[in-house]
Amino acid sequence: MTKPHVHRVTRAEVAKEAGTSVAVVSYVINNGPRPVAQATRERVLAAIKKTGYRPNGIARALASGTTRTYGLVVPNIANPFISSMAHALQQEAFADGRVLLLGDSGDDRARELELINNLLLRQVDGLIYTSVDRHPYIDLIQASGTPCVMLDRVEPELNVCSIQVNEQHAARRATRHLIEHGYRDFAIICGPQEMLNTQDRISGWKQALEESGLEVHPEWIFPTDYTRQGGYDATRRMLAGKLPRALFATNEQQAFGCLRALSEQGLSAPQDLALVCFNGTLESAFNVPSLTTVRQPVIPMAKKAIEMLKRWDGQPQKYEFDFELEIGESCGCRSLTTSRKSQVT
């Protein structure tokens, strides 16, 4: 079955209907570069409405050299931290007159590559990117000449722009908070160990323990997915042995899964297991118990990412943001509202 031919109204037809030139129609549509008398503008707008004219975005992009779009590639939009960052980026892009095209790789590197190729084919004006495992497809992006900002730490030799929080320092600070409570037996629920962000968070956890003269128990390191199910399964494995007194979960979703598994056994935080986590969102404060968590400054980071794309000059720049340790109930603190800004020492 053949598609029926749909006639696309041209600017020439709009000009004919309005009794003016094609150039004047263009000035009205683009709001410049030359002024148009109000009466003429109204005739052109009326003609656009009558004819059903729609601007050709592809032609406009070819003429102007810009598509007014940015691309965003993330590992998994179901993660509330990632979705909060995507929302902040969308708001900043919209304020800059751009559309943000979202690509969710679903924690799949092959899909991640396909998304990047599709966004580059659409000639996005810039790409904001978090790789599934911190091994990004930088060569492909740089070969296209497309501006790119990574939302994570990447290896220095990649020579790319990035914004980040020092995750090793943040993990160290969160663990030190538990140590300050007097706890001595520590476990960690972490992400897959081949991932660089997992390695950073384990490193910070170990560093805090070693600085305090506490033993690192390899049997209390529980790798799993960065999901509720992952946290639940890891906690079930932990409960099969000797229970530690304190736990660092390397993301908020793992912490939620942990609390569920504890509850099923009649246990709770912080009474039986003190808990802090990484990458908390607003959900942490409304959980029972509220979570003590490392918070990243999502809105300032989004503003900086968009600004870096707008002012792109091809030179690699790296910005590191402070994090906050937001105090909840899960660690043993009673305050629901206290928030302390971390001091990295």
From TrEMBL:
Keywords: DNA-binding, Transcription, Transcription regulation. Residues 9-64 form the HTH lacI-type domain. CDD domains: HTH_LacI, PBP1_LacI_sugar_binding-like. The keyword DNA-binding applies. The keyword Oxidoreductase does not apply. One of its GO terms (molecular function) is DNA-binding transcription factor activity. Pfam families: LacI (PF00356), Peripla_BP_1 (PF00532). This is Catabolite control protein. It comes from Cedecea lapagei.
